[in-house]
Amino acid sequence: MIDNATTPLDLSDEPAYLDAVASARTAADAYYGSGESGMDDATYDRLMRAITAWEDAHPDQVAPDSPTQAVAAGVVTGDVAHSVRMLSLGNVFSAEDLTEWAASLQRRLGGREVDGWAVEPKLDGVALAARYQGGRLVQLVTRGDGSTGEDVSHTIGNLAGLPMELTEPVTVEVRGEVLMTEAQFAAANEARVAHGGTPFANRRNASSGSLRAKDRAYQVEQTFIAYDALTDPEHTSDPRLAELTHADLIAALAGYGLGTTLGTDIETRSCATLEEVQARIDHIGAVRAGLDIELDGAVVKANDPADRAAAGSGSRTPHWATAYKFPADKKITVLLGVEWNVGRTGIIAPRAVLEPVEVGGTTITYATLHNPADITRRDLKIGDRVYVLRAGEVIPRVEGAIAATRTGEEQPIAFPETCPRCGSDIDRSQERWRCVRGRGCGQIESIKYAVARDCLDIDGLGEKIVVQLVERDLIEDFADLFTLTRDQILSLDRMGDTSADKLLAAIASAKTQPLNRVFCALGVQGTGRSMSLRIAAYFGSMDAIQAADAVALERVDGIGGEKAPVIVAEVAELEAVIAKLKAAGVNMEQPGWTPPAVDEEAGDEANEGLPLAGLAVVVTGGMSGPLADYSRTEMNELITRAGGKASSSVSAKTSLVVAGEKAGSKLKKAEGLGIEVISPEAFAERLADLL
Ligand SMILES: NC(=O)c1ccc[n+]([C@@H]2O[C@H](COP(=O)([O-])OP(=O)(O)OC[C@H]3O[C@@H](n4cnc5c(N)ncnc54)[C@H](O)[C@@H]3O)[C@@H](O)[C@H]2O)c1
Ligand SMILES: [Zn+2]
User: Which of 140, 386, 487, 551 is at a distance of 20 to 30 A from 664, taking alpha carbons?
Assistant: First the structure.
């Protein structure tokens, strides 16, 4: 599917260009002003790319109020002058763009090659300058228009990562990003609502709003992460700083006690080559979804201070750094309604019905809302424009509503009075509401479903018997059927020897049903008879289904990016039931199964016949044997030549891991995922023809 946010907008003439400038202006005014723009970043970025393209082609017709002309579109100013301007960053969106940008930087350096790179996350928050004098934090200033910012020193003490005192009495101005973790965001919303305010639409709004609000009756904690400092002798008492590479500068700042990414999975790293840069960007992109802070890309910087000085800066961006933007994981759409579903344990969970929106290549129509209290906390209303977040392969969720764009037509969300499945009372003592019947709610329906014709097809197990079995606590779910004794069955009303034996035989023969029927009986959302058949035919065994992640499930015909994570979550929830079935000797295999053809994604036709065709390979640890002298880049090139895809991190998509000496976490992860691991020697043997 096409990601609309990356397809170019074509501005055909000057009126179209001026229209685009006007829309971008309106959005930027709202975004940098109140913080509540009705446009999402992906849409804004796409508009800006079109505007930039038109301006490049018509340099004489650039509108004076074009948002391309100033940092923060020139919207915000302040009263504190920046001694060195705080700039924005240029953007690239692909490996090709990055190569092109690196080449242009090299041209700026008079053709000299860049002396190494630093790669770090592009943190999605608000830029802040923190001034320390003799080791004491004395002033905080926002970026503003880059030349002057706003004094926000009133937040001193509320930013983790910006201690009041450094470990050394140094004078220095540190620059970095202020952002909120999920917990900080929740706390900020709670405090705001408790003081009569409306909750924030998203985390970035919350950061910006909380930073700029003065005279607040309450405190909001945020996180500061440093990515730069003013290093020239005019601005710091530590002369060492000016000599450091970017990566070492970050380490020095961490040494002062400042918050940095150091020690995390996404820490600032030095990279010798563009291949290493790309691998590091891919790594940051791969782990992004699991982080507690939000990233919208990776930043690539010239590592050497001499290169940075030689490259200099333009009016809005430095020439020595660029942002490699990741596809947007957040979009704005309309909340059409809320459904209340009752889970296996009786939890009553709200689910948002959305106007379909494309996020990261998947069309999203549903999103989770955690619980009723969360809806109240976020003050959501039907008809609201809301932010939907889809981080990686997990189930999308609603982050918050944009209160500024309300029309007054929005409707309150109705909460259920009684259990929407069985009509019983609701236990509201916890944040997550629950049917008072707990697991018992829907129990009879789900057992009836499991034994019906489309699933296990157990003859003689009608509703009356199911009800008795449940009510007499003989079974809790359909897996318990397989351990019923003859005496237990005989104890049921009007059950004679003959019918008991018949029923026992019917239950016993259900043990040999093919996997598709056993899986169907589990009653996983969205997996009826034919979908269960497709899943069983693809994976072949219950173990393989249980091991599958969302990416693997999406390879099954008919399962998209929206359904896959729901199935993964439900299968995980059913672990205990599946374990009981296994223990009872129920068949867990699909008869006559053959492994599906190699993954189409990785299988490049041109590579057919090559030793690693279609395989995603990760190299870790020190190489030895014939590969002893191979650098990581050379290893990656070798893998590519052999038709494989080199990757820096291990995931369920990885087909093979080459583990050398001192291999650590990647090897462990591969073993955990059951991925084939081989030694450098064995790998060399496989590729003997190519060495
Ligand atoms: N939705 C809207 O209506 C709207 C309007 C205007 C702007 N925007 C969004 O704002 C952004 C553009 O604004 P911008 O000019 O602030 O640029 P930017 O956010 O794209 O990049 C510059 C900023 O990145 C931050 N940054 C994060 N990590 C960094 C690192 N490691 N090193 C250096 N800087 C780092 C700094 O704060 C810096 O100021 C875009 O994402 C755009 O979509 C949205
Ligand atoms: Zn119920």
Answer: 551
Whether residue 55 is predicted with pLDDT greater than 70 in this model: the reply is yes
Check if the beta carbon of residue 357 is closer than 8 Å to that of residue 445: no
Quick check: CB of 37 below 6 Å from ligand 1?
yes
- Residue 399 has a pLDDT of 92
Residues making up the annotated binding site for Zn(2+) are 419, 422, 441
Burial 404-436 (b: 16+ CB within 10 A, else e): eeeeeebeebeebeebebbebebbeeeebbbbe
Q: 28 in ligand 1 pocket by Cβ < 6 Å?
A: yes
| Ligand closest in space to the Cα of 436 | 2
Residues 564 and 628 in one domain: no
Indicate which residue's Cα is closest to atom 23 of ligand 1.
Answer: 88
Task: Quick: pLDDT tens for 449-493.
Answer: 999 998 999 999 999 999 999 999 999 999 999 999 999 999 999
For residue 309, being part of any structural domain is answered with: yes
Encode burial over 476-493: b for 16+ CB neighbours within 10 A, e otherwise. bbbbbbbebeeeebeebe
> Considering its fold, how many domains does the chain have in total?
6
Are residues 218 and 136 located together in one domain of the fold?
Answer: yes
pTM of the model: 0.75
Give me the active site residues, please.
122
Pocket test for ligand 1, best of 6, 82, 89, 230 (most atoms within 8 A of CB): 89
| Distance in Å, CA 366 to ligand 2 centroid | 22
Closest C-alpha residue for ligand 1 atom 10:
41
Is residue 536 located within the same domain as residue 677? no
Boundary residue ending a domain (524, 552, 583): 583
For the chain, give the mean pLDDT.
91
Count of C-beta atoms within a 10 Å radius of residue 143: 24
Do 269 and 173 share a structural domain? yes
Residue 503 near residue 487 (C-beta atoms within 8 A)? no
ipTM entry: 0.96
CB of 399 closer than 8 Å to CB of 215: no
- Domain of residue 311, residue span: 80-325
At 216, the pLDDT band (50, 70, 90 cuts) reads confident
What pLDDT digit, counting tens, does each position of 651-680 carry? 878 889 999 988 888 888 888 888 889 999
| 41 C-alpha to ligand 2 centroid (Å) | 41
- Structure-token match 């909750």, residue found: 199
Q: How far does residue 370's CA lie from ligand 2's centre (Å)?
A: 18
pLDDT value at residue 7: 57
Task: For residue 47, give the CATH number of its domain.
Answer: 1.10.287.610
